[in-house]
Design brief:
The protein is an alpha+beta fold and about 425 residues long. It contains 13 helices and 15 strands. The chain has a five-stranded antiparallel sheet with strand order 1-5-2-3-4, with helices on one face. A four-stranded antiparallel sheet has the order 12-13-14-15, covered by helices on one side.
Length: about 425
Amino acid sequence: MALEGTLKDFSLADIFQLIGLQRKTGVLTLRGRDDTVTVTFLDGKVVGADSLNRRLEGRLGNVLIKTGTLTTDQLNRALEIQKETLQRLGFILVHYGIISAQSLKDAIQLQITQIIYRLFRWKDGDYHFSQETTIEYDRDNVSPIAAESILMEGARMMDEWPIIEKRVRSYDMVFRKKTSEQEIMVVGAEDADEIDFDPDTTSARKRKPAGGGDKIRISEEEKSVYDLVDGTRTVGDIVEVSRLAEFDTNKALYELLTRDLIDEARGKSTAEKAVEQTTPVDETDVAETPVPLPLVLILAALAVASLITSIRNPLNHLNPFSDRPSAVAATQKAISFQRIEAIGQAIERFNGIHGRLPARLPDLTPDYISTKLLEDPWGNAYKYLQRPQSYLVIGFAPDGKADTDLFLSRTIDLGPAAGGISKPDTGGIRLIE
């Protein structure tokens, strides 16, 4: 079985949904303009990820340094041992007691997720999934990651990145601290001053301080990024030395900007100056070249049409012809698919033990399935219908109406010895052939 195409035709969320839903084992390869990434799946769960331009082995030391687990001197000594023994860096670090086994696991897990989350920013590229009977991965240090958790976090990033990029426009930007008469207080993330961060408005603003008073309350993560802002470091520099993930570092910069604690440094970055020096502009030609009025009108019409049809247009919700679901809605529907499939598996396990179908879905808890999985992401309880030798599980749309794409119908052989053998009719669930 092979699944391939382009990300323009089939989104990354759809790909992860299908592989996770069908519990496939294999390797997903994605090729973009600047990088090639491979993601390894075992029974529909992610167990590995690597980037051609950001090799996992080569970046492990940097991750450990960023998290404060390893010093530069310790890394250099470990790399010297690696040259002599040709052993994996992680094995050397744990074997010689430089770091703990748990620290190594956490670092590898962080690196894998960051490689995957960067994929959600890809706007184009080719993908190919090759199904395998077995795959090799670092079983000692990697815990399989459910596709559901990756999809939810990826969807959040897809919605918030465009907002962040409106202010953190380039990794060459330089920020500086602003003087403020208000005292800055470091508190827990839940007690920090709230920021309106609504993807539907593509804007944000500072809200009333969570605790009242004149003090500015920021989280420890925001404070760590705030301390790195010195008027000389670029955003790229801060991302590199920050102990936070790439997305979280950029979000912290955005929130500090929104709270008026930092602003863009005057002057231009070194990179911007270099571009200007290599691409001189003849200001006289620009100023004296008239633009015909008909061309101006045509360009204005094209701009309006482009704004209306843009999927990120903040006015799309007013457009009666815009029916493209948001990234979060699409992801929640994918999660609902997975929960329906999990319910079906729980029903079959129940039948295999009791020799009958459950009378109602709550009978499956807590031995066969978690109670929270009996509701969809919108809080609607799944509908369950049973017949003499078959059952039906029905899901709902956000408005509470039955969704014809969200149902699972199966014929099942009753009896403990049968083990719940079933013939699936997956309805709207798309299968990989």
